[in-house]
Structure prediction request, 690 residues.
Amino acid sequence: MNKFNLVHKLPNRLRYKIFDISSKNDARPLIESIQKCEGVKNARVNIRAKSLIIEITNSQIQKEIEKIITDFKTTKCDSSCRVERGEVHISKQGLITIASVTGAGFILPNIVNAPLSIATNTPMMISGLKDLYKNGITSHVLESLAVGVSLLRKDYTAANFTSLLLEAGEYIEESTSDRSDNLLRELIRPNVEEVWIEKNGIEEKISYKLVKIGDIVIVAVGDMISVDGHIIQGEALINQSSMTGESVSVTKAYGDRVMAGTIVEEGRIKIWAEHVGDDTSAAQVTKYIEESLSSKSSSALKALKLADKLVPLTLGLSAFAYITTKDWERVAAVLQADYSCALKLATPVAFKSSLHKAGKNGIMIKNAQALENLSEADTVIFDKTGTLTKGELYVSDVISFNDEWDENKILSLAASTEEHYFHPVAEAVVRAANEQSFEHIHHEEVEFIVAHGVITEVAGKKVHIGSQHFLEDDEGIDFNGHIPTIQKHEDEGKTILCIGYDYKLLGMITMIDTVRHNTKTTIDKLHKLGIKEIIMLTGDKQQKADEVAKEIGIDTVFAQLLPTQKADIVKELVANGKKVVFVGDGINDAPALVEANVGISMSKGAQIAKASADISLLKDDIACISNALELAQDTMKLIKSNFNITVAANSAILASATMGYINPITTAVLHNGTTVGILLNAIKGIKVKK
Prediction:
């Protein structure tokens, strides 16, 4: 594309007059190329005015944009354009032209109808010859041949009507495929260009690209949250439907986690940025969707291969019809009936419809192959903490070892010190203290010792809060006389937080991670869906693990495991022929997620776990796992049903055409009608259970 003029220029806007684009389909690849440039905010085209408008944030980008326009090549689309993914689409104008010629053929004499029909269908003939040269005998070649035979027979009505039905059917098929892609793209949220942050007590607006981990991001009413993180100030009503599928907005306050891509409907909050840019939940969703659009499952690949293998069958039957009857009309009718269109499009469309519906319900499936693998699963493995359990600690006991300090005062001391941090233990302590309306105890600056605990001062005396190892071995606090009490609670599977004051053991706080309320119903549903074995992996002691397994219906338990042993267990089961689904959430679950046939990460899982998984839950609900399995199984049933209908219907049409029971026009109507019906059934998809 060499013909363009810069018509108008502003610091943040460029407008070009372009001459080589006549449709939005021509413009689409150019727009996509320009929008990839850093510094381009938006690009759009006005076809009627032949105008290209580009919103920019960097005036230096002009030369790069003009080079893209100069180098860009458009492929013109005439009335014979075939619809292939990534290529140009047949235009509505082309359909109108063919329809007009077809209609005119019923009233015009052959002396006029003949050249008109030949001119209209010549592009299809040429396109068919090119396809024959490049790809051999394909369905497109057969269709072109069918129209050509009708033209040679001077049956212009049949040729034009057949061409019209073929192009109309192709147009509908491509529109259906486009719609399935667009359904998935609906899940991609628009990018945030600028955000407000607080720095040294001053609020300022900066480019989103400059936001770093640890920044304080401010989000007000109507704004989209652009980072994953924790609320450190304020309260808001947040619409999370785009990320979790929840129809009801939720209230979030201090300490709660929020996700990028969600919208603040009421309130104003300050967020400590934990994940930014490509590491946010919204960015991961976008990545998954782009992979989904380009991926093919083994079922889709089988359908493609079968469709190609059946093309010679159609050609052979047309030859048989001619040899036995010398009837060119019968030959033209046979050439109309091929299996290709429905077989090639129905399967990927059904997959994309299911991927979209899953995403809308908080289940982000990375690609079609993951969905197919999930449908074949016979074994599900759960990592216990954060999957079968809530992954959130709750205070179960506050124990005092000093008569001058009661339980409430110990809890208040711990909460006053821990409220500055978002560690799960700290969050549990603060949550428990808030439930009792604790009184804040004044303390000096808090020092955080990674993987050990915290140190501060109260009334001039040192306060140590952390593990037994930290207080006893590192800080020299005496634990004599209290070991049996601590051991008893550890044997019960509780997490222990020790509190020292003035270098004496003041007390301890015990915490537990409770099983999710719907874990048992989810396990039961998995069994009903055909899962033969459900396994739990945990580092807990065997007795505690067995108790939990019995409570929720787990079949097999592996307890007292080291993190590295999880992947070994998964690997062994896969090697033995099991179709394994592994569900986890931690950094140490990543190897197991990769080894499994299907890896599923929980919504609050570590980023590396989400990146390693085939399926990522955006909603913190274990029921999504059984829902995903049911969706996968129902999708494969739909695909199998569509496949059987396609083969049966087109075989009947082909047989009827071969026997001479139907003419070319009837064959085209039946073939294209069946194809469109199957595609509409595919895009309708299946219902997601909730």
About this structure: The chain is about 50% helix and 20% strand. Residues 74-93 have pLDDT under 50 and may be disordered. The first helix runs from residue 24 to 35. The two ends are 51 Å apart (CA to CA).
